[in-house]
Specification:
By secondary structure, the chain is of the alpha/beta class. The protein folds into 2 domains: 179 residues, P-loop containing nucleotide triphosphate hydrolases (Rossmann fold); 175 residues, RecF/RecN/SMC, N-terminal domain (Glutathione S-transferase Yfyf (Class Pi), Chain A, domain 2, Up-down Bundle), CATH 1.20.1050. The protein has 14 helices and 15 strands. The protein has a 6-stranded antiparallel beta sheet with strand order 2-1-4-5-6-7, with helices on one face. A 6-stranded mixed beta sheet has the order 8-12-13-3-14-15, with helices on both faces. A hairpin with a 7-residue loop joins strand 1 and strand 2. The two termini are 24 Å apart. 41% of the residues are buried.
Length: 361
C-alpha cells in the first residue's frame, strides 16, 4: 500500500501541501527548522490522529488557526483507492476512512499502518518498559486480529481490579476480576511470545549488515515470574497488590530485553550503533508485517544519516533500498541520499524551505 497523494493544512509551519508521492522512495531535504520533519509528523498524524513529537495540540496547530487537517488517498495492495482524512481542533477530532466516519483511532491505525524512526527512537533501549511494550504491541496488533479485543478486555478488568484495590476492598471482591484477567492475559502472553519468536527469526537480516558478527537478540519478559503460571502469580501477589493499591503482575508489566552479545544493548554498543540497532529492529517489524499480512506498511524515517559515519550510513541505506515499502526520508543534505534515490524503483525528491514544500524536478 502507498499514499498516491497527500494534502496538509494548518500543520505547524507548513504552507498548504498538495503532493503526489512516489510509490517507493520519497526524500525530503531542507535545513533544520524548515519543516521537513513536520511533513513526516503530518503523515504520522494521518495514521494515528496524534503526533510522535508532542502530546500538545497547540504545538502542531499553525498559529492563528482553529483547526488542522491531513488527507490523502491510499492505493491498497489490491489496487483499490481509499481516501483518508483527519481533521482536528482543540475539542474534537474527525476521522474518515473510505468516505466512512470512524470513531475509533484503532480502526484508523489498522487501515493505515505506519512505522516511524526518529532521533529519539533510541528510547527503546534507554527508557522504561512502556516504550518496549509499545514497540511489541505495534507488531502484534498489526499481525494478530485477536490481540486488540483481548487487550481491551484485559484493560477493562485491570481497571476494575485496581479500583477495588485502591478502595481497600475485601479479597473476595477483588478476585471477582481475576478470571477475566487470567483468560485474556493468557491470550496476550501467547500472541506476544509468538511474535517475538517470529521477529527473532528474521532480525539478523536487518541487523547483521550494520552490526556485523555481533549477536543481537530480543527476549520477551511476560510480566510475572517465568517459573509460575499467571493464576499462581496473581494469587501470590495479592498481599502486595492490596498494600500498593494496584495489580503488580500481568501483561501490563511485560518487557522486551534487547541484547547484543548477551549484554543489554545500551551497555554494550555505542550511541551510533544503538541508532542502527533500533532502526534495524523497526525495519524488521516492517518486514515481518509485510510477511505476515501480505500488505506493506509505510516507513517514516527522520534525519536518517544523523550521528552515523559513512560506513554505517551506507550499510543502513543498503537495507532501505531492499525494503519493498513506501518510504519518506528526511535529510539536511541532498547528496547524502542521492545514491539510494538512484537505486529505487521509483523515487522523488522534495525540498522544503520556510514551510513551503515543492518537488525537485
Amino acid at each position: 500500500m502507498a499514499l498516491i497523494n497527500l494534502g496538509i493544512r494548518h500543520f505547524r509551519n507548513l504552507q498548504p501541501v498538495d503532493i503526489e508521492p512516489a510509490a517507493d522512495l520519497n526524500i525530503i531535504i531542507g535545513e533544520n527548522a524548515s519543516g521537513k520533519t513536520s511533513v513526516l509528523e503530518a503523515i504520522y498524524f494521518l495514521g494515528r490522529a496524534t503526533s510522535f513529537r508532542t502530546n500538545r495540540f497547540d504545538r502542531i496547530l499553525q498559529k492563528g488557526q482553529n483547526s488542522l487537517a491531513v488527507y490523502a488517498r491510499l492505493k491498497s495492495q489490491k489496487g483499490q483507492i481509499v481516501p483518508f482524512g483527519v481533521q482536528k481542533d482543540a475539542k474534537t477530532v474527525k476521522i474518515r476512512v473510505n468516505e466512512q466516519k470512524v470513531t475509533k483511532v484503532s480502526d484508523l491505525v489498522a487501515n493505515l499502518p505506519l512505522q516511524v524512526i526518529h532521533p529519539n527512537s533510541h528510547q527503546l533501549l534507554e527508557e522504561g518498559p512502556k516504550f518496549r511494550r509499545r514497540f511489541l504491541d505495534w507488531g502484534v496488533f498489526h499481525v494478530e486480529q485477536t490481540f486488540y479485543p483481548a487487550w481491551q478486555r484485559y484493560q477493562k478488568a485491570l481497571k476494575q481490579r485496581n479500583m477495588a484495590l485502591r478502595k481497600k476492598s475485601r479479597k473476595d471482591y477483588i478476585s471477582i476480576w481475576d478470571k477475566e484477567l487470567i483468560d485474556n492475559a493468557l491470550i496476550l502472553d501467547k500472541l506476544r511470545k509468538n511474535y517475538i519468536n517470529d521477529l527473532q527469526e528474521i532480525l539478523h537480516h536487518y541487523i547483521k549488515p550494520v552490526l556485523g558478527d555481533m549477536d543481537s537478540c530480543v527476549e520477551y519478559q511476560q510480566g510475572w515470574q517465568k517459573d509460575m503460571d499467571f493464576p499462581e502469580a496473581l494469587e501470590k501477589a495479592i498481599e502486595k497488590d492490596m498494600d500498593r493499591g494496584y495489580t503488580t503482575v500481568g501483561p501490563q508489566r511485560a518487557d522486551v530485553k534487547i541484547l547484543v552479545d548477551g549484554v543489554l544493548a545500551n551497555e554494550r554498543i555505542s550511541r551510533g550503533q544503538q541508532k542502527i540497532l533500533v532502526t534495524g529492529l523497526l525495519l524488521a517489524q516492517a518486514g515481518l508485517f509485510n510477511q505476515k499480512t501480505n500488505k506493506k506498511c509505510i516507513l517514516l524515517i527522520d534525519d536518517v544519516a544523523a550521528e552515523l559515519d559513512e560506513k554505517n550510513r551506507e550499510a543502513l541505506l543498503s537495507i532501505l533500498i531492499n525494503m519493498d515499502v513506501q518510504m519518506f526520508l528526511t535529510s539536511i543534505e541532498k547528496q547524502t541520499l542521492s545514491s539510494v534515490l538512484d537505486s529505487a524503483k521509483s523515487g522523488k525528491m522534495f525540498h522544503v524551505e520556510h514551510g513551503v514544500l515543492s518537488e525537485v524536478i
